From TrEMBL:
Residues annotated as transmembrane: none
Originating organism: Didymodactylos carnosus
InterPro entries to which the protein is assigned, alphabetical: DD_CATIP
Protein name as catalogued: RIIa domain-containing protein
One GO BP annotation of this record: actin filament polymerization
Length: 129
């Protein structure tokens, strides 16, 4: 026999002597072509509502994360102060150089030296005597 089945508490035992033949298919149905539906989420009220709700959830989550991690708040504060003080022409390149030491992939010493050499540290014109 190929397999048998016993059930606890039942006096019946089932045994199968042969399996049904496996069906093989030579041809498959063609893959259905489903037309792509255009989603105009800005015009669809339900989709726009879902988008706005999700956006608000993410903004609250990000604000909560920054509130719980004061070190990130300090880094962002330093960055914004540097941008307002130095006023770089290309803020994206400036941000790349500023945050390079914090990136684990580029946190080697050469990148840190290059970034500190490229970012001028503002000096104060106030002299206390």
């Amino acid at each position: 026999h190929l397999f048998s089945r016993y059930q606890v508490g039942s006096p019946i035992t089932m045994k199968t002597k042969m399996l049904s033949p496996v069906k093989t298919f030579d041809e498959y149905l063609p893959k259905p072509e489903i037309p792509k539906k255009e989603l105009n989420w800005e015009e669809d009220l339900e989709l726009r509502s879902k988008f706005l709700d999700r956006r608000d959830e993410l903004v609250d989550e990000y604000k909560g994360y920054i509130y719980q991690h004061p070190d990130i708040r300090a880094i962002l504060s330093d960055f914004l102060q540097s941008v307002l003080t130095i006023k770089p022409t290309n803020v994206i390149d400036f941000a790349t150089e500023f945050f390079a030491p914090y990136n684990p992939r580029t946190a080697d010493r050469s990148v840190t030296r290059e970034a500190s050499a490229k970012i001028p540290i503002p000096t104060s014109n106030i002299h206390l005597e």
